[in-house]
Amino acid sequence: MSAPSGAGGLTARETVEAAARRSYGKLVAYLAARTRDVAAAEDALSEAFAAALADWPRNGCPANPEAWLLTVARRKVIDTGRRRETTSERLEAMAQELDAAGLGRQIPDQRLALLFACAHPAIDAAVRAPLMLQVVLGLDAKRIASAFLMSPAAMSKRLVRAKEKIREAGIPFRVPERAELGGRLDTVLDAIYAAFAEGWSDGAGTDVFRRDLAEEAIFLGRVVTELLPDQAEALGLLALMLHAEARRAARRNPAGEYVPLAQQDPALWNLPMIDAAETLLLRASALRSIGRYQLEAAIQSAHVARCRTGRANWVELVALYDALLAISGSPVVAINRALAVAELHGAAAGLAAMEAVAHDPRFAGYQPYWAARAELLSRAGPPDEARHAYDVAIGLERDEPVRRFLQQRQAELGD
Amino acid sequence: MQYLLLLYAEEAGWAKMTPAEQKQGEAAYGAYAAALKEAGVLAGSNRLQPISTATTVRLADGKPQVLDGPYVETKEQLGGYFLIDAPDLDAAISWAARCPGASHGVVEVRPIWAMG
């Protein structure tokens, strides 16, 4: 694919890119829902986009880019179907339907069905988020692999295997019935959040792809809330992601050093984004169906309120953590709860709360546990133990500025 | 499985650092080793002297040929390694990403060839 030259060409290229961004998932969903062949739909679309890059700069952008792309992609899908000897009856029906769609009729948005297929319980949980990013947003395997710390070859293999599974096992492209919607929606939300967390892990926001990944996850979160507006947890997840994203710029000072929440300058926060998160949270709570993401968003909201007003609200925070712990039973939540307990009742109480879950073997390699432990030990514990906890926390940290921040805290312990 | 994490970085970078920065850098490696030990995955580790101390040896037509300097001159040099036990490549990559060497250089992850 070569870049078209000249100002007109650039505009056409931008139109293609905008169409890709807006329509990719919609078109894959539409094509794949009929054949269950995600890989074939992706191949067909990438050919259609290549054709657009060649055609639009010369002949001008079509009035309905989506329909144009679908018409080209459809030919390829039908060719592939013929080679695979899909029963001709189904194929003819599909061809007619695709023709009708290509003639300018509104293309139905089946991205939600596609998301449910990607996050189907039969698909390996670890590959659900990467699969969504590739299939719904069109990101390439190499970049997804880096973001998820996997070798590109292994990631490609997993994605191919997952798509084969969708086709061979007959995983349906549909939104589950109301009775099972809740549980199935959770897997979709978890995969979106996993993508967001990977994007969020780039503190400085200097790694463009990682930062984009957080934005892409927010985009997916919006898709779900638009198509399922009365699902409280979907609203909660979007609120949670917006809250975190709103503080991105404040996480580093101009020298590139890590700034913990308590020392952040609220003036650097994206207030409209925080307001949007608050509105979503209100909408969610009106639906009266509490869940993990709403509670996590409420915790973010409480932290933000404290920093903005200067009024301590640790009683409220411990209560929120208690509720979250009751739902999730997650030892990770227990650690954050222990930090809130420490603010309320002192570091010793926080350490005692942490001791209750410290035996969990997963913590040996879990950085936030060691960072929290080091912080509390530095306030009320033997300096040697604090020093060791800082060592492990620093050693487990991937982000250099955070590493430097923890080293500084460790140095403050004295000898 | 065992994996060797090979740390490549520009040696000149180290010399350019202030003593305080060098101390912080060494402490980061110490902390990394402590984390590997805590997780029970550290099998071995060493830091190498600069390439100016390297000597290469080979037998050419049965005669030893000894040369000053490293085997290949590169922009970044092998400066040390960590040998770790990890269940699979993904786990090894996640340890490599935490290595301070990944921030100021490159970490190459190589599975160990298991013998008989």
List the helices and strands and how they pair.
The complex is a heterodimer of chains A (415) and B (116).
Chain A: H1 6-35, H2 38-59, H3 65-83, H4 88-102, H5 111-118, H6 125-137, H7 141-147, H8 152-168, H9 178-200, H10 208-227, H11 232-246, H12 271-286, H13 292-309, H14 314-328, H15 331-345, H16 347-355, H17 367-380, H18 383-396, H19 400-411
Helix pairs in contact in A: 1-2, 1-3, 1-5, 2-3, 3-4, 5-6, 6-8, 6-9, 7-8, 9-10, 9-11, 10-11, 11-12, 11-13, 12-13, 13-14, 14-15, 15-16, 15-17, 16-17, 17-18, 18-19
Chain B: E1 2-9, H1 11-16, H2 19-38, E2 42-47, E3 55-60, E4 63-68, E5 77-85, H3 89-98, H4 100-104, E6 106-111
Antiparallel strand pairs in B: 1-5, 1-6, 2-5, 3-4
Which keywords apply here?
heterodimer, A: 415 residues, 19 helices, disordered N terminus, B: alpha+beta, Alpha-Beta Plaits, two-stranded antiparallel sheet, flat
Question: Overview of this structure, please?
Answer:
The complex is a heterodimer of chains A (415) and B (116). Chain A has 19 helices and no strands. Chain A has 415 residues and is an all-alpha fold. The N terminus of chain A is likely disordered. Chain B has 116 residues and is α+β, with helices and mostly antiparallel strands. Chain B has one domain: Dimeric alpha+beta barrel (Alpha-Beta Plaits). Chain B has four helices and six strands. In chain B, the strands form two sheets. Chain B has a four-stranded antiparallel sheet with strand order 2-5-1-6. In chain B, strands 3-4 form a two-stranded antiparallel ribbon. The radius of gyration of chain B is 16 Å and the shape is flat. The chains are: A mainly alpha (415), B alpha+beta (116). Chains A and B meet through helix 18 and helix 19 of A and helix 2, helix 3 and helix 4 of B.
